[in-house]
Amino acid sequence: MTNIQEVKEKIIIPEGVTATLENEILVIKGEKGNLSRVFSHPKINLKITGNAIEITSKNVRRKEKALIGTYKAHIKNMIKGATQGFEYKMKTMFSHFPIKTIVEGNDFIIQNFLGERAARHAKILEGVTVVLTKKKSGKQLQILNVQHVLNIEISGFSKMEFTEPAKEADKHGRR
To answer: Model confidence over 114-130: pLDDT tens digits?
Structure first.
């Protein structure tokens, strides 16, 4: 395998966002809030110069190059989360058994899933706002909005928390 002599990636920090780096902890501050993350690797260096974050490394192999791309994606997601936030839109639909979804405190409740008497529960994580809106077009349709989430990972976990209770036991996902 050959090594690449040097890799430099530059991420521009937009107006209204400040970034600080101390002891390998990058803190991004924006209008929606603050996000921090540890970026620690012996061969990869981060530094803030002016209005940009630079990721540099020397004698890079394939794994370090991939990790530099991962760092770049994480930093871009942090900037997006601090400025715009993340939002997922999900739909609950049914064909025979009318599903009812409710938000009570920190619980998302799915009632009458496949005609079951017991309700299924999912926890709403901290920092997540869930909004239920109802539309009618032929069949009843509820749109679930997961809003105002700073961290893309938390929004992804929230989506997973809501979809896991709605899975059938012993069934393949593509059927």
So the answer is: 787 888 888 877 777 77
Domains recognised in the chain with CATH numbers: 4-83 (3.90.930.12), 86-166 (3.90.930.12)
Each residue's pLDDT tens digit, 102-115: 888 888 888 887 78
Burial 7-24 (b: 16+ CB within 10 A, else e): bebebebeeebebeeeee
Write down the pTM of the prediction.
0.72
Scanning the chain, the segments in alpha helix (DSSP H) are 62-83, 152-163
Maximum Cα interatomic distance, the chain, rounded to a whole number of Å? 63
Q: Which is nearest to 88 in space by CA: 140, 33, 125, 37?
A: 125
